[in-house]
Amino acid sequence: MSAVRSALAAAGVVAVLVGVAFVLDPGLAAVVEGTDWQVTLLGLLALVQGVRLVAARRHADLDAAETGDPEITASMPVPGASFDDLLADSNGRNSAARRNREQIRSRLRETAIEVVAWTEGCSREAAADRLEAGTWTDDPLAAAFLGDVAVTELSWLDSVRYTLSAEPRFQRRARRTADAIARCAGVEVVE
Fold first, then answer.
1. Is 135 among the domain residues?
2. What's the pLDDT score for residue 22?
3. 133 is in which domain, residue-wise?
4. Read out DSSP for the chain?
5. Are residues 102 and 177 in the same domain?
6. Could you read off the pLDDT tens digit of each residue along the chain, which spans 191 residues?
């Protein structure tokens, strides 16, 4: 702090103490005689100080708390996204695509065994037998995908539709199998 500021601060403290003393004992104020020019000077000093403080405040940065945006939602993983990613990468003849197809078939098989055992109240072995026999679902493509059965029950229209489909055969059957598992579990499938 500079010497001028220190002197002004000391004078301000003395003035405040004198003012408090005058308020507490009004008889002390009678000792000090105030002329018009002293009152005018005091008023001008107060006005200058007020203007100085307002000007300093106008150019000061405003510090305020910032709240987060309540409309922003948290990013959550989408159920089934990893399955969709695997399925998208299962097309092709390379080793990665083959591994993805094996992993998809394995995941669908394990899920189907769990769902069939749970919904039909049987053991995992009995559920696996139903998958092999193709009796766990009414969908012939899903039954053939997980079981040891041939696809024979497709209608003429379904046969033409699947022959002309742009979606690869494995992906189409995997999706149908996932839908059949969901229906077996009692989940409504939206196509």
1. yes
2. 76
3. 97-184
4. --HHHHHHHHHHHHHHHHHHHHHH-HHHHTTS---HHHHHHHHHHHHHHHHHHHHHHHHSPPP---PPPTTPPPP-PPTTHHHHHHHHTT-SSSHHHHHHHHHHHHHHHHHHHHHHHHHHT--HHHHHHHHHHT-S-S-HHHHHHHSS-------HHHHHHHHH-SS-HHHHHHHHHHHHHHHHTTPPPP-
5. yes
6. 578 778 877 887 888 787 788 778 878 777 777 777 777 877 787 888 888 888 878 877 777 777 777 777 777 777 777 877 877 778 878 888 888 889 989 999 999 999 999 998 999 999 999 999 888 988 888 888 888 877 766 677 777 777 777 778 888 888 889 999 999 888 877 66
Residue type, 35: T
Clarify whether residues 112 and 171 are in a common domain.
yes
Question: What does the pLDDT look like over 89-107, one tens digit per residue?
Answer: 788 788 888 888 899 899 9
Q: Is 69 among the domain residues?
A: no
Tokens encoding 70: 């309540």
Q: How many residues does the chain have?
A: 191
Q: Please report, for residues 6, 22, 122, 148, 187, the alpha-carbon distance to residue 184 in angstroms, rounded to integers and kept in the order given.
A: 85, 92, 14, 19, 7
Q: What is the largest CA-CA distance in the chain?
A: 119
Same domain, 107 and 49: no
Tokens 């005091």 belong to 42
